[in-house]
């Protein structure tokens, strides 16, 4: 049996007064909109974590979903004469697809090696299902009380937009920090299926035949049980997926609050010298530290700036793992080091994990070190309005950040940010920047250098010799001109390593590149 054909509004049979029934339908719109936005944000967040480049992934997810919503709205026209049955089935399928999308996307990345196809496919499927909701809900609300289409749409869209607001706030402030991406998506599916079931199987139960009602109840119940059961296996799934990505030597995996930190290899940071696995730190899937050659990167980043003049006051941007801090503290004359790290969870891991603590020599326990959280851009802006170039200015500023790209760190490679750094430097202050791979991505590297010069800094580009392709720029505050600093040629990490990094001038200079700004980022 199926829904009866659309009847006049005064013939509808509801278990509650019409006004309350109408309110319950609008409440369902609110809940469904909140769940739909959570699905969108979940896909964007997980795709950015798995593959980086959040701007591209956000654009793909949102544009595909909006396109698919239009298709879903057209397809829903065929279900209007069976709006109650159609709505509960759409919500059940959406709960399964949306709730399981995060696990499916992670599984695709871990075991199939890529997530792009799954990302587009789930964006399309979720968009079609979300688009089918509104026409069906419009039909149901008109079943309760006839009103002009404009008024009904205004009520539906109001509930929809407010629900989207709540879903957008719940995702970063509740679901992600307390439940994680996978469990949060599954629980959202449970709420989604429950909302659809309540509206149809209780409020509009007289519109559905007995046999169909029990069938829909069984489907909806099975979906909810499946999603709830899935939450019990999230831990096992994550462990196996991480092993597929990082290997069997995975040792620590924690959610810091803003990103996932994973440690692999031997807890002894010197084990690689005896044939063991090197200790490696991954942040959101990207390698940030390797005990086998990490000292070469950090000594090359820090050494030239620290050796170029006074270094009593040092500002370290990023570097929550403590390795750049270790190099700073090994230089004479250092009196105070301020570490600005946006993620306190990484600093906590660097303080407590035996392997990472051994690698950074317990640098955060040094009484000269002060750790501050928050956004580096805002912190430097506060400094610019307060200290200027007075006694609180810094002799050395070092940015230990991921390579420049289109993500959230792009503003920390902008002309505006470098202008703030320049104001924070003492008259003879130096600024060391990790500018990406000089040989593999020359345009990005030289854009960083051009952006530094556009902010009034004198620059000296340099790179580390093989086997790694690391590019850096050393800059100095200058009242004018573009004279080059003496180019650093070699640096010692003071770790006793037999192969300290050798520095060279980067090849293939690219001239004429415009600077990167907040409104026009130039990093591809």
TrEMBL record:
E.C. code: 2.5.1.16
Keyword Transferase belongs to the record: yes
Region (Disordered): 477-524
Keywords, ordered alphabetically: Cell membrane, Membrane, Polyamine biosynthesis, Spermidine biosynthesis, Transferase, Transmembrane, Transmembrane helix
One Pfam family, short name: Spermine_synth
UniProt cross-references to SUPFAM superfamilies, sorted A to Z: MFS general substrate transporter, S-adenosyl-L-methionine-dependent methyltransferases
Secreted recorded as keyword: no
Annotated binding of S-methyl-5'-thioadenosine, by residue: 259, 341, 375-376
Designated name of the protein: Polyamine aminopropyltransferase
Annotated source species: Streptomyces daqingensis
Upper classification of the organism: Bacteria, Bacillati, Actinomycetota, Actinomycetes, Kitasatosporales
Gene it is expressed from: speE2
